[in-house]
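Team,

Forwarding the record for the chain on the shared tracking sheet. I've put the sequence and predicted structure together so nobody has to dig through attachments.
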Amino acid sequence: MRSGYKELGLDLVEPLQDQPRKPRRPPMGEEKKDEEARDPIKLLLEEALKKQRNAMMDKFSRILQRLPTGSASTSSSHSGGATPFKVQVNFDIPIFEGQIDGDVVDRWLNMLEGYFSVHDFSDRERIIFALLKATPNVKDWWETYWEQWSEGEPSLFLVASTWNSFRDAIKEQYYPVGSYEEKYIQWTTPRQ
C-alpha cells in the first residue's frame, strides 16, 4: 500500500512521536475571555460600560425609593418625598381661522385649556401659544384689540393681559351675534 504512494512520487510522513498532536478546535469561552482581556481598548470599554450601568442602576434605585408605597392618592401633596411623574401628552390642536362660529371657538378654546392643564404656562405664554395656533388675521385682531385698551403698548409681547381676558375677547369677537346669550340660556335652563 505504501509502495503505491512512492510510485506516484509521494512519501508518507510519519507523525512525530516527540510532539503530541494538538487538535484544531475553536477556542472555548474561557480562552476567548483570556484573549480579549489582553486588549486594552476592550478593557477600557468594559470598565466604562460597567460604570455606566452602575450609575444607571443607582439612579433607578433612587427613583424607586422616592415612589410612594401603598394606595395611590389624588391629593396634590407629595408624600414620602416622591416627585410626580412627567406626563407626555400629544394634542392635535387645530388652527383657528377666525370664523364666526361659536362651536368652533368653543372646541378650539377647550383644546387649548386641555393642553394648558398638562403644561404649566403663564398667561402670556398661553396667549402666545394660542395665537401660534391661529391664522395671522386673528393675531392682528388681538394686537389691535389690546392697542385700544393699553395705549402706548403696540406689541403683543409687551401687553400684560390675562388668559381669561384673551378667552373672553375671542368669544366676544368670534361668537355670532346673540349666540353667547343663547349658549348662556342653554346652559342655565334645566333639560327634561
